[in-house]
C-alpha cells in the first residue's frame, strides 16, 4: 500500500481506534500495567533498552509483533490505545516510522513523555549512504591518478558526485516506502546505540523522577556493555582483510561508517524495493572487483534474490541481523540487542577475513 494512502486510512480510522480500550494483551504480548511506568516502543532495540534501563519499575511494550518486518507496519487499535495510556512513548525518528505524525497528532499527548531515540546522532543522508561504495571507488581512483592534472581531477569528482546524487534520488523515488532525506538505521552501530539509550534514560527520568537513581545505575551498566561491544567491533573489524560487504538492504551504513567498512545494498533503505538491472550490474561488478565471498541475508525478508545472486556469482550467503524485529524463535530464546549484535560481529568477521 502506498504511504499516502496508508496514512490517510490511518487518520480516518484514528478516532475509532482510540475507542478500543479492551484489556487484552497487545500484539507484543504485553498490556498496560497500572502499578508501573509503561513505555511503549516502536521497535525492538528501543524495547530492549527500555526494559534494561527501566528494570523492575518499567513495563515495556514493543509494538511490533515477532515475525513482522517493521518498515511498512502501522499501529492497530490496541497499539494506539496503549500509547494513550502509557507514560512514555519512544520511537526511532529520522523517518523510520511513517505513522508517528498521524498518531501523535490525533491524540492528547499531555502527560505523555515522547522520546525520539535518534535525536543527537549525526545522521547520514540517504544519498550519502546509498552510494558510499561510489565514494570508496573514487578514493581508490584518486590514489591511482594522484599525479594527474588537478583541475581535471576536480572536475571528474564533481561530475561523480552529481551522478551519485541523481542515482540516489532515482533509487529513492522507485522505493515503495521512502524514509526521506536521512538513513534512520542508527542502532546498527553500537556508538549510535549509546545515544539512543541515553535519550531513553532522560525520558524515563522525566516520567518517573522518583526512581531516577535506579535508572541511572541501570543505564551505566548498559552503557558499559555497549562500550565493550563498540571496542569488540573496533578491534575485530580493524583486522579484517576485506572491508567491502554486500547486504540485503541499505541498513548498515552507520556500522560501515563507524568501523571502516563499505556496504553495497541489494535493495534500498527498505527491503521491499526492487533493484534495477543497473543496480544488479553494479553489485556483480562490486563482488568481482573486491573478491566478496559472501552475500548477507536477513531473517524477516525473502532471501530468494540474494541467494540467486550468490549462486550466479559463485559466492555463499550468511545471515546478518538488522535488529528491526525478531523472529518468534529469537523472541522465545530471549535474544537481546547485545546478543544479536555479538552474533553479527561473528558473521562479519567470518565474511570479511
UniProtKB/TrEMBL annotation:
Ranges annotated as biased composition (Basic and acidic residues): 129-184
InterPro entries in the record: Bact_metal-bind_prot9, Lipoprotein_PsaA-like, ZnuA-like
Keywords for the protein's UniProt record, in alphabetical order: Signal, Transport
GO biological process: cell adhesion; metal ion transport
Keyword Transport: yes
GO molecular function: metal ion binding
Statement: the UniProt record of this protein carries the keyword Zinc: no
N-terminal signal peptide: 1-25
Disordered: annotated segments: 129-188
Record-stated family: Belongs to the bacterial solute-binding protein 9 family.
Name of this chain's protein: Zinc ABC transporter substrate-binding protein
Originating organism: Paenibacillus antri
Top-level taxonomy: Bacteria, Bacillati, Bacillota, Bacilli, Bacillales
Amino acid at each position: 500500500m502506498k504511504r499516502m494512502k496508508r496514512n490517510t486510512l490511518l487518520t480516518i480510522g484514528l478516532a475509532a481506534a482510540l475507542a478500543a480500550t479492551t484489556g487484552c494483551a497487545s500484539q507484543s504480548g504485553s498490556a498496560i500495567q497500572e502499578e508501573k511506568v509503561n513505555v511503549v516502543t516502536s521497535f525492538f532495540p528501543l524495547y530492549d533498552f527500555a526494559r534494561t534501563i527501566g528494570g523492575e519499575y518499567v513495563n515495556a511494550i514493543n509494538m511490533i509483533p515477532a515475525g513482522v518486518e517493521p518498515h511498512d507496519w502501522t499501529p492497530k487499535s490496541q497499539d494506539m490505545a496503549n500509547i494513550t495510556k502509557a507514560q512514555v512513548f519512544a520511537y526511532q525518528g529520522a523517518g523510520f516510522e511513517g505513522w508517528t505524525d498521524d498518531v501523535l497528532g490525533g491524540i492528547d499527548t499531555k502527560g505523555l513523555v515522547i522520546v525520539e531515540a535518534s535525536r543527537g546522532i549525526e545522521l547520514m543522508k540517504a544519498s550519502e549512504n546509498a552510494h558510499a561504495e561510489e565514494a570508496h571507488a573514487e578514493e581508490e581512483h584518486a590514489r591511482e591518478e594522484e599525479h594527474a592534472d588537478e583541475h581535471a581531477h576536480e572536475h571528474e569528482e564533481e561530475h561523480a558526485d552529481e551522478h551519485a546524487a541523481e542515482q540516489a534520488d532515482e533509487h529513492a523515488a522507485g522505493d515503495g516506502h521512502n524514509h526521506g532525506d536521512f538513513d534512520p538505521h542508527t542502532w546498527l552501530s553500537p556508538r549510535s546505540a549509546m545515544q539512543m539509550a541515553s535519550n531513553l534514560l532522560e525520558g524515563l527520568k522525566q516520567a518517573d523522577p522518583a526512581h531516577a537513581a535506579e535508572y541511572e545505575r541501570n543505564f551505566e551498566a548498559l552503557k558499559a556493555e555497549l562500550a565493550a561491544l563498540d571496542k569488540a567491533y573496533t578491534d575485530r573489524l580493524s583486522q579484517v582483510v576485506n572491508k567491502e560487504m554486500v547486504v540485503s538492504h541499505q541498513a548498515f551504513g552507520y556500522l560501515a561508517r563507524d568501523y571502516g567498512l563499505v556496504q553495497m545494498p541489494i535493495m534500498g533503505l527498505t527491503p521491499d524495493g526492487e533493484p534495477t538491472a543497473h543496480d544488479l550490474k553494479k553489485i556483480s561488478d562490486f563482488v568481482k572487483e573486491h573478491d566478496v565471498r559472501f552475500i548477507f541475508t536477513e531473517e524477516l525478508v525473502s532471501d530468494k534474490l540474494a541467494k540467486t545472486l550468490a549462486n550466479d556469482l559463485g559466492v555463499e550467503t550468511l545471515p546478518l541481523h538488522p535488529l528491526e524485529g525478531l523472529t518468534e524463535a529469537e523472541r522465545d530464546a530471549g535474544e537481546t540487542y547485545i546478543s544479536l549484535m555479538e552474533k553479527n560481529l561473528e558473521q562479519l568477521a567470518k565474511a570479511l577475513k
